[in-house]
Amino acid sequence: MENLTPFVTVVCGVLGLVIGSFLNVVIWRVPRKESVVAPRSKCPTCDTPISNRDNIPVVSWLALRGKCRTCAATISARYPLVEFATGMLFAAIGARYAHSWALPAYLVLGAALIAISAIDVEHYIIPNRIVYPVGFALVPLFALAALLGHDWHAFERALLGALAAFGVLLVIHLISPGGMGFGDVRLCFLLGLALGWLGWPEVYFGLLAGFMYGSVIGVTLMALRVLKRGEHLPFGPFLAAGAITIVLLGAPVLHFAPR
Ligand SMILES: [Zn+2]
Hints:
globular
């Protein structure tokens, strides 16, 4: 196989649309402590179960013009947006990791970060019901990638990266408990794991990018008076965006040493 990249990109993109549809269920039900497997999705207004033809990612929402087929209640644009965003993120991860055994791990991470971000924005929580199972999935997925790619050094670095990121955020949490919840600390274990697989500069810049996004957007919203004194933003989406930036683009290459 000379170049798998275009094929893997398209397959991952389509998979992302389908997974995005499932993430909508996760985003709605996990904060409400409901099962994500049963029962099947219903219209929240009229309780009519959603038929298969009305459950096609993005397409169904557009065909129904954002309204329930039975009661015509408005269906939030968040549903097609989550599906579209997951499709695009999966395609980007597919393009970047088409030739890597770690591809499945990064797809799981991407799906988890979309669900976590959407829930954190709405409810200001990062649910353990997502972080723990994803952690238990990522460690064996990276171990499998290490086995297949003969790179146990990367796996060891991933585990150390997870502990380092968790430790740094724990210290920040303990110094200023108001600013950062313990959910963010646990989330950074996952981010450190995925960034650590790539390298130590990736761990550093992945977390740094998250803090930069958070402070730039926070200061901007305060200047615009959207965010009032004493209010704060959920931090999970910024940490997720920072990590994804480095997972997709890599860490900046630094040449400090004089030649
Ligand atoms: Zn309805």
